[in-house]
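Trying the structure run again after the queue cleared.
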Amino acid sequence: MKKSFSKWGALLSVALLMGLSSSVYAQATRTWVSGVGDDANPCSRTAPCKTFAGAISKTAAGGEIDVLDDGGFGGVTITKSITINGGGHIAGILVAGTNGVVINAATTDVVILRGLTFTGTSGALNAVRYMAARYVVVEDSSISGFTNGINMLTTVVNGRMDIRNVQMTNGTTLVGTTGIHVGAANSIATISDVSVRGYTDGITTRGGVTYLRGSTIVANNTGYNNMGGSLLSFGDNMVSGNVVNGTPTGSIPHF
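Done. Tokens:
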């Protein structure tokens, strides 16, 4: 009898430990990062993680990673619907020789990047490399020092991209740099309240339709480089001081 109780007690202990382990590693719909966090933490508000890469594996699809305080949180690859929200803090992504954020999600996924500071050094590639997703939003952010700022690849299927209130400066001495690249066929992109300065090409389109409003495209070699697709202007942009300003393919009146 004593052995029987001992056996069942051992099994119960194992079950409890397994349940505890599952709860510790369960993905949360909202996680947190801090400049003084630790990626060994569960990424809760009281025990935040240190990096976006550490937090994303503990965040459920469709969830949100929030920044608790100022810090540098590193680059990250995104493979699911998610929001990364700087929350008014200095939410830095500082990388060298690589990409800041790579988005390679499903064609049904939505990715929102808000309130981030992208800084590239030593040949950094793309601040945002959009490889696959249904819809990508980059807003209230700044980008400097990358070969390409926001790069939608030509292979994206029916891409949708919205860039709002983003300041972009090419801090490199490289040639062949691009601020915003819209490459996919059948894509729809909107660019609003954006500043693009110092690139070889401020904006390049290769496919789809891009809408531009309330933006400043100055001090680039070419302001707008049309290599396919179309750029429609609302007529309230400042495109000036580029070696070649370029010409939108059409305009849209205010109404």
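The first strand starts at residue 28 and ends at 33. Worth checking whether this holds up in the mutant runs.
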